[in-house]
Amino acid sequence: MLTTLALTLVTAPLGAAPLGDTEQPARIGIGATPFQIISDTEIIIDGVTYDSWEAVADSGYFHTEHTRCITGFDDPGVDIRGTGADCDFNRTRVEPQYQPDQGVRRIPVVVHVIQSTSGTGFIPESRVRSQIDVLNEDFLAIAGTNGGAGDDAQIEFFLATEDPQGNPTNGITYTTNNSWFNDSGSYWNALAWDTNRYLNIYTNSASGALGYVPSLPQGGIVGSNSDRVVVLYSSFGRNAPLVPFHLGRTTTHEVGHYLGLYHTFNGGCQSTASCATNGDRICDTNPESSPTFGCPGGRTSCGLPAPFDNYMDYADDICMERFTPDQINRMRCTLENWRPNLAITGPQACNAADLAEPLAVLDLADVQAFIDGFTAQQPIADIAAPAGVFDLADVQAFIDDFNSGCP
Questions:
Q1: From CA 6, how far away is CA 14, in angstroms rounded?
Q2: pLDDT, tens digit, for every residue of 47-74?
Q3: Which residues are catalytic?
Q4: In the chain, how many domains are there?
């Protein structure tokens, strides 16, 4: 008989401001534009109050280069690790050892949900899990999903099942703190799990942008508490409230930076003859003079078709659908040389019912993962044909695979 399990983890900060901090939300922003979130129905931008995230999107606020992603690209000037020259700040060398056929790389994730004392910023576990699904759809190019048109990076993400102390976890922490919700204060010093071993994602106001990472890993941030991905909570997960940035692709974009990718429009119209050392350091993405906004049917920039559907451009979520082979090579090179302790290369799922850690073991964790996926109509539970239909055929297929066991 299928058994449901209640999985909830609420974590208090380990220092600095306490849970339930009652200070008033700070005014934050990018450049001269103040950005303040009072609630999901009171967002103040440059003195104008919007009554919904839809109204913010309609205002065009996120259709500027510096409100979509504020990732830093500070080059330290030297290869600080003494390795990784194949994918440092200055170049990308596409090498066979970084190709996807060298095996899947699995990345444990912890999502730190930061909310205000009014509850603004709360994200349910189901939406957090949906974001992990979207990452896998995009990085694995899963057929039948928006990412299916892209190339398979053989990079997979999963919510951590053990915390840094070896305790069981669902990979999600919840923290209430007004200052941290407004992306102020060094919250990462209190909340970060070992950044060498976990991808730490934080959801809050993201300083008025859709998201960012502080620096590419090539800049020396790896291993520090500040090494992180930050995403605006209203654009996090599938069917988030901030349409048209509501399908989880902000996180895909920022994780691309976390794995060493530049924006496709970095450097503007650069020479294609030296594409590996200028622009985005990627030769199979055409240069762009500026970002792509909206969801065009096509676009020409720098005299060439623009890579408007690339995850590292700025198109609407529904229009993003691919990483290129050279981008994948650079990300896998980054994992090997700049984040060498992050990815796991251990056991793989033994059949379609092997949905949860530990892989190659069928247990109640897999049953719970199937129940959660089936209830949320997520691709992991769509085991039987027809695709996109969740019915008894999927349940029976799961039971058959589960009962068959792992070799």
A1: 25
A2: 999 999 999 999 999 998 889 998 877 6
A3: 254
A4: 2
